[in-house]
Amino acid sequence: MNDAFLSLGSNEGDRKQWFRKAIDMIGRSCGEVVELSSVYETAAWGITTQPDFLNMVIHVKTDLTPHDLLNHVLAIEIELGRKREIKWGPRIIDIDILLYNYEIINTADLIVPHPFLQDRRFTLIPLAEIIPSYIHPKLNNSIWQLLTECPDQLDVRMKGQLNS
């Protein structure tokens, strides 16, 4: 079994409901969802003139290869109605592979660890909630250390657990 850490983001519609649907679909097609972070809210990153995002991280135990996992989460995004029209624009659901075991992957369609992980508090905070001492395989720092050094100044507010 492989350990994959996925980030979920949404800033359209019933954001928590999109998370619930995505997590259910991930559990059915990708592997066992073994841990959920809290849900956090933050202003949009990249294009800032859009609604605030909810973000969270989930830990999945999977038999899928990294590329198969990517194909499954992309299919889930499409099935839920995600349209890729504007880079960093509004979205119903965004699912990114942040980490996959301790592997370093750099292909045309997949980069793991996620290339912006260390630059975004909205992914580091929920990831640090789950695996604070995990050592980033490229940067050789713990997730907690990356969070303390993160240059991102966006306010990240805890919104509780997904079921609340």
Strand count: 8
Task: Using the 3D structure, state the CATH architecture.
Answer: 2-Layer Sandwich
- Helix proportion: 25-40%
Distance between the termini: 30 Å
The fourth-level CATH homologous superfamily is 7,8-Dihydro-6-hydroxymethylpterin-pyrophosphokinase HPPK
- Strand percentage: 25-35%
Task: Output the radius of gyration.
Answer: 15 Å
The first-level CATH class name:
Alpha Beta
Would you give the CATH topology? Alpha-Beta Plaits
Number of helices: 4
Provide the structure class: alpha+beta
The total number of structural domains is 1
Biggest sheet record: 6 strands, antiparallel
Q: SSE string, helix = H, strand = E?
A: EHEEEHEEEHHE
* Rounded average pLDDT: 92
Low-confidence stretches: none
**Shape, per Cα inertia axes:** globular
